Amino acid sequence: MMRPLHAKEIDHAVKECILCGRCLEVCPLVSATGREELSPKAKHTLARVLRQEPERLEGKHVAELAGLCLACGRCEKACPQGLCTPEAVADLRHAHPDLKQWLWKQWIEKGGALWPALAWLSRRLPEGRAEPSPRYDAFKTMGSGPGITPFLRVSNFPDAGLGREAVLFPGCTARRLFPAWTDRAAELLAGLGFSLPKKQPDWACCGSTLGHAGCTEAQHEAQQANLDAWRKAGRPLIVTFCATCRCGLRGYPDADLSWEPGEALRWNESVTSLAHFMADVTIESTGEPPAAVYYHKPCHGSGLAGAGADEALLARALGDRYAGTTGDVCCGMGGIMQLGAPQLSRQVADTLWTRLNPSAGSLVLTGCSGCVLQLKATAPEGVAVGHWLEAFSPQNG
């Protein structure tokens, strides 16, 4: 069974849930549905009974119920024991694999061919349906492409990267569906003075979504492949523009990889967000921005040092047009839960949009690739969604 990466141990005994209920206050599924059986507390209780008295419960059915988890990680921050429900759920999924897990693994690992093909097909699907379908909406989103007219441009760069070598880690979504994000990020890094290779490393998935799905071996293979790619590139800075990728990459030192002495620390120090280096750039307007521009805070990586740099960048650039965040609300992406319970994922997204209630013509930007897909698929009519990089015009344009 997979060992939880962040489980707190005392004398080799993993701490147990103390049923305080603090996780209920932060769990997006509980907030959207009012169902306490979907809470982290309930999942830990089931996992404990299954672990201590397995004959009392049918493991597969328990795993199915406990698997209704968005893997947002909010509960870990609220838990006085520091318990991480996504990793407890990953344990259950790993111990009781099913078809959904296999399909998700294929979706991630074979996505280089699958995603572009499905994106092409999705552009030929008819608009609208008599009955809403979360899977249909998500499918249509794959082919929507960036739909934002850029309205910002960096007019002056500090020498933040002068003499430093860097590589971009775009993540699966940017590589397969939105390559323009990577192009824009490369232009910005070059402007900052970073030295970029002509060919980026041959990255695998960051492994985060594979781990949450219980695909432990696939996650380990992806992590080791990325470590090897970084070594081959000369151990440069790894610059990301996806919050989930950054969170996943910074978790590598907890994994049992072929680390050399001191290498894990150097890896973590090298993983940095693009927006972090843009704190002192001068930004000018190149067009009229939407009347209201919101920023959606990704759940993943919110507690890491440097989180929020992209929001601060947008707030400074937009001035009065910046309408604030979408609130401390999960978008409901949920990874593998898109296969198992897309209706629950949609309920969480609907909660976000109901609370925000944006007017037509508004724009929501974010710094997480998964959030972009989920928000695009669920946004009210007339509300645009994109990655914050889409707001920036090409530097040579």
TrEMBL record:
Q: Which SUPFAM superfamilies match?
A: alpha-helical ferredoxin
The GO terms this record gives for MF are: 4 iron, 4 sulfur cluster binding; metal ion binding; oxidoreductase activity
Read off the Pfam families from this record.
CCG (PF02754), Fer4_8 (PF13183)
Top-level taxon: Bacteria
Q: Which UniProt keywords apply?
A: 4Fe-4S, Iron, Iron-sulfur, Metal-binding, Repeat
The name this protein goes by in its record: (Fe-S)-binding protein
- The UniProt record lists the 4Fe-4S ferredoxin-type domain at 6-38, 59-89
Q: Which organism is it from?
A: Oceanidesulfovibrio marinus
Residue stretches in coiled coil? none
